[in-house]
Amino acid sequence: MKEFERIIFVGRSGNCREVMAAEILKTKPLWRKPEILARGLVVLFPEPLNQKVEAIMTGKGFQPGNYMSAQLEEDDITESTLVLTFEQSGLMKVRSKFPDIPYLYVLTDLSGDELEILDPTGQDLITYGICYETLEKSVSKLATVLNDGTFPFDEPDDVSDDDDNGCETVEE
Question: Which of 2, 51, 69, 117 has CB atoms 3.0–4.6 Å from 14's, for a disulfide?
Fold first, then answer.
């Protein structure tokens, strides 16, 4: 079972879905509490939380405080860091900038959801609310995966080629 010291949600700007997902995961009961961060791929200067995200999160009981976006940097990533994007195109962008990330996945691939997480940027408040609800479901499933250790990237235990488990096979 792989245990992560840090989980980073990465998107374009670092002040929208990334923050919602990170804050949701922080509320989930995890066997081990890693550092949970939100980062952007294109952060020219720190920006505050998207106003619609702030409205949705405040309505859900979160206290976003003085959040400012931050760029994903090489220093953020270690051998025990799980980096999650929201769509395949985001994964490809992260991989092109950081080709050596050992654990880089699309959130919905780990949560088992079929559809990627919609980017609500520029949409109405209802769309941000739908995005939050979708993230809540996917991040809850992710928490289960983190607790169970049922990762698709776990290396199998040392299994010999002998598939009879030490039992003699009797042919009839």
Answer: 69
Residue 98's contacts (CB-CB under 8 Å, 6 or more residues apart) are: 72, 74, 77, 83, 104
Cβ-Cβ contacts under 8 Å for 132 (sequence gap 6 or more)? 20, 56, 57, 60
Instruction: State the Cα–Cα distance between residues 74 and 111, nearest whole angstrom.
Output: 26
Name the CATH architecture for the domain at 6-148.
3-Layer(aba) Sandwich (3.40)
Chain center to CA of 44: 23
Q: Residue 137: helix, strand or coil by DSSP?
A: helix
- Model confidence pLDDT, tens digit, residues 102-112: 999 999 999 98
Q: What is the DSSP letter of 13?
A: S
Q: Is residue 58 a contact partner of residue 68, using CB atoms and an 8 Å limit?
A: no
Degrees to nearest 5, angle at CA 80 with 77 and 83: 55
Q: How far apart are CA 124 and CA 102, in angstroms?
A: 36
Q: Is the pLDDT of residue 164 over 50?
A: no
Q: Is the pLDDT of residue 165 over 90?
A: no
Per the DSSP assignment, residues forming a β-bridge with 10 are 39
In whole angstroms, what is the distance from residue 136 CA to residue 140 CA? Answer: 6
Alpha-carbon distances of 123 from 54, 74, 99, 135, rounded to whole Å: 14, 32, 32, 16
